[in-house]
């Protein structure tokens, strides 16, 4: 396994954290979502299909106009070099026969809805029996204007509030000017959610479900940055930082790895000096008379062996016993070394009281001749 065997537990934990954070980012709201086909479905068409009755095929089966709805967390998208807040919704839409196709088809689609979400009913209030998701019904009074209605329902007049009211009503949406529509007291219009509340497509779908319970959708919570980082980082630490190193150690112990390498380091910490108490407890070595006799016998035996080998000369007969001398070794003789006397007398010097003595030659004063 080579390099893998040398990694420690903390190495694997560090690697798992880096990989987990990277996967958390790639799977959060900042990452791309599955792309759908380019279709003519817009927000207006999306709401129209949701609110319409299901389609019945030739066999009598009810086919939902929109199914498999997945709502992703809000994100910031760049459109025409401008950051725009939006929320992506993917779904399978029923494309009914039109000038492009003579048969109905199911198509996977992806739409990004603006945040805040502003409902866009495609008909008047009476068409929806006075109820449309994401809106309230307002009865027009004498002297009302769109800004006055925005001020009354939103608390203040803002361009976003005025635009939201216009987009929520066909009579305002397609009018080129205020002279193109006439409302009489008693007429009803839709007033969408206040844009300042930053409602999203998730809120709109929840409101749709209260009117049409058969509409189902799911929220991709695992794409939320909060949960994505926790999910992927935690899973990465568990798999890469804990389970994987454990399996590696099991494989190494099972003989799949290389044998352990000998180390040049020697652990000296295993050795320690003895204390004074331990020294005192040690048995004392005592030399007995028998030990001396044995040592004398050993010495005599060694001398006898040396004589037999001819290395030592035996002592002269009738003479005094002498110490055996090795054969062929000359004995040096000579008197003690004497130092040669320096016959040169030292010249008398005069130091003349200097702190650091400096030798000066002493000259005798010559008497003047008479």
Strand-residue proportion: 15-25%
Gyration radius from CA atoms, angstroms: 55 Å
Shape: rod-shaped
**How much helix is in the residues?**
25-40%
Cα distance spanning the termini: 116 Å
Mean pLDDT: 77
Low-confidence stretches: none
Biggest sheet overview: 5 strands, mixed
Q: What is the SS-derived class?
A: alpha+beta
Q: How many helices?
A: 10
How many beta-strand runs?
Answer: 11
SSE order, as H and E?
HHHEEEEEEEHHHEHEHHHEE
List keywords for this structure.
Membrane-bound Lytic Murein Transglycosylase D, Chain A; 370 residues; alpha+beta; 10 helices; 15% strand; rod-shaped; 5-stranded mixed sheet; two-stranded antiparallel ribbon; single chain
Can you describe what's shown?
- This protein has 370 residues and is an alpha+beta fold.
- Among the domains are: 3-27 and 230-253, no CATH class; 33-117 and 199-223, no CATH class; 118-198, Roll (Membrane-bound Lytic Murein Transglycosylase D, Chain A), CATH 3.10.350.
- It is 32% helix and 15% strand.
- It has 10 helices and 11 strands.
- It has helices spanning 3-6, 9-26, 43-51, 146-154, 159-167, 170-173, 201-211, 225-253, 276-281, 289-308, and strands at 55-56, 62-63, 66-71, 75-79, 82-95, 105-114, 135-139, 188-192, 217-219, 349-350, 360-361.
- The strands form 4 sheets. Strands 3, 4, 5, 6 and 9 form a 5-stranded mixed β-sheet that branches. The protein has a two-stranded antiparallel ribbon with strand order 1-2. A two-stranded antiparallel ribbon has the order 7-8.
- Strand 1 (55-56) and strand 2 (62-63) form a beta hairpin.
- Helix 2 (9-26) runs antiparallel to helix 8 (225-253) and helix 4 (146-154) packs across helix 5.
- The protein is rod-shaped.
- The mean pLDDT is 77.
């Amino acid at each position: 396994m080579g390099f893998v065997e040398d990694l420690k537990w903390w190495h694997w934990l560090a690697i798992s954290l880096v990989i987990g954070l990277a996967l958390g980012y790639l799977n959060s709201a900042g990452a791309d979502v599955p792309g759908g086909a380019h279709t003519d479905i817009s927000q207006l068409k999306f709401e129209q299909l949701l609110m319409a009755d299901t389609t019945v095929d030739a066999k009598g089966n009810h086919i939902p106009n929109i199914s498999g709805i997945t709502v992703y967390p809000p994100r910031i998208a760049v459109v025409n070099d401008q950051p725009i807040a939006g929320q992506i919704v993917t779904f399978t839409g029923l494309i009914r026969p039109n000038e492009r196709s003579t048969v109905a088809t199911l198509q996977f689609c992806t739409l990004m809805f603006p945040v805040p979400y502003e409902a866009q009913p495609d008909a008047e209030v009476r068409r929806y029996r006075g109820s449309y998701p994401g809106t309230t019904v307002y009865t027009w009074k004498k002297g009302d204007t769109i800004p006055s209605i925005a001020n009354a329902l939103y608390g203040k007049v803002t361009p976003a509030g005025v635009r939201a009211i216009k987009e929520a009503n066909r009579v305002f949406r397609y009018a080129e000017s205020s002279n193109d529509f006439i409302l009489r007291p008693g007429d009803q219009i839709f007033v969408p959610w206040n844009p300042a509340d930053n409602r999203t497509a998730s809120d709109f779908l929840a409101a749709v479900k209260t009117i049409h319970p058969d509409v189902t959708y799911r929220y991709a919570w695992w794409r939320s940055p909060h949960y994505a980082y926790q999910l992927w980082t935690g899973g990465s630490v568990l798999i890469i930082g804990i389970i994987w190193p454990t399996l590696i150690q099991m494989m190494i112990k099972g003989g799949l790895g290389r044998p352990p390498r000998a180390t040049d380091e020697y652990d000296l910490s295993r050795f320690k000096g003895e204390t004074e108490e331990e020294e005192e407890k040690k048995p004392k070595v005592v030399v007995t008379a028998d030990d001396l006799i044995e040592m004398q016998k050993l010495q005599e035996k060694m001398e006898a062996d040396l004589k037999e080998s001819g290395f030592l000369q035996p002592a002269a007969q009738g003479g005094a016993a002498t110490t055996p001398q090795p054969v062929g070794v000359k004995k040096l003789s000579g008197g003690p070394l004497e130092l040669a006397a320096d016959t040169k007398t030292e010249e008398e010097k005069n130091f003349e009281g200097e702190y650091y003595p400096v030798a000066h030659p002493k000259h005798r004063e010559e008497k003047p001749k008479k």
